[in-house]
Amino acid sequence: MLAIASAANFLTILDLWVVVVAYPELERAFAPTTLSEVSWILNVYTITLAALLVPAGRLADTFGRRRCFLVGLAAFGVASLGCALAPSLSALIVFRALQAIAAAVLMPTSLGFVLSAFDREHRGTAVGVWAAVGAVAASSGPVLGAVLMTRSWRWIFFINVPIVVVAVIAGGCLLPSSFARTRRRVDWLGSVLVFGAMALVCTGLVEASSGPRWRMSAALAAGGVLAVVLVAHVRRHPAPVVAPRLFEANRFKIGAAGIFVYYVGFSGMLLGSTLLVTDAWGFSVLHTALAIAPGPTTASLVSPLSGWVGRRLGFRRTILVAAGLFASAAGWPLLAAPATPAYATVLLPSLICWGLANGLLQPALFAAADAAPPDEVASGSAVLTMARQLGSAFGVALLVAVLHAEHAADLSGLRRVWLVVLATAAMTALVGLGARPVVVNELPVVRTEGSASLSRCLHATSRRSARRRTACS
Description:
Layout: H1 2-17, H2 23-29, H3 35-38, H4 40-63, H5 65-84, H6 89-117, H7 120-149, H8 155-158, H9 160-174, H10 188-210, H11 213-236, H12 250-280, H13 285-292, H14 294-302, H15 306-336, H16 343-366, H17 377-403, H18 411-433, E1 439-440, E2 443-444, H19 451-472
Antiparallel strand pairs: 1-2
Helix pairs in contact: 1-6, 1-7, 1-9, 4-5, 4-6, 4-10, 4-17, 5-6, 5-9, 6-7, 6-17, 7-13, 7-14, 7-15, 7-16, 10-11, 10-17, 12-13, 12-16, 12-17, 12-18, 14-16, 15-16, 15-18
């Protein structure tokens, strides 16, 4: 089950990042076209995925995770085949939107399977594996894209089809049907409000890097209005699309806030490292992909151990340690001032620190979905993955504004990127400080001055009851 869920997670995240390196080739393949038009291949995926995650997670809780997972997986394979065979840019964008709809179903249900299948002792390690696969997919997307591009851009999408076929067959045989659906009303109005708010906010963030300022402002303002209406709606609805009780758990709130802040910096780290080796140092696309590979490799090695580390350090300390490593990843190239290529002494140590931070932080934060009520696991997972998409979109928009796009190769612009990443690392640490400090076996322990007295009182009461039962006998 972990392998099937991880395969789905890998595909959905990989297809978010793998097309980045294909922009020039796609621009030539569908000429005459512009780079802004080609960029909608990524934008439509990002916006649709972020907007549909929460409604899709709610539907999975309502109609059954197994059924929704298998349907979403099959739909993702069909949409991938459509992308690979697309005769025009418009057709490719349409199939990318269909891919995103399927991915919105797969992401929360895959994490829900992992959380439901393992007991508390092994859950941290299982989520670590799931998150490690996602981290490798996100960080190695440009790597795999560059390798596949040596044959054709269509192979970026063809490669999904055999993986989907194997996963569907395995899922049909191995995924248990014991994940019963929860009978509840479907909050269609809430789903529309979530979709509208997320789509408008993400569109505004995308327009911040390419479109006119008035369009960005209008989209963000409209998205904010819908978000306010959504909050008012979920407070009144008996079974809202986003249950307010999800945020009653401190750990879940910390997880959602931490994922959003961290992924703002994640985008900056990936973009800054790529621009450093391509624009400042002049590496080729394939050389760039191989140069960045130590980051995801380190994350993939560390993530399976995150459950063991988390049980010993606790939720709060794990976040603080990972935030410190993430700050080191940004501070190293910032202090080194790499005017000339110095991969081994500048970028490699930074990538290793980033991989260590990634491997510890992501599993800890995504495991916060375990704090959701049992019948809201998929919905809680969807909220966390939505926070990831929002953070990524906001990070890209912020960094494009910081770089001013046309001066991407300027070292002063790259230093501003590292400063943004350093700031997000500090904010991640601040979020971690809000977590409860005392954690044993991932369960909070409340220590109060009167707890010992209460324990003695209960023990004495138990002994008196035992003596009464003996007297009656």
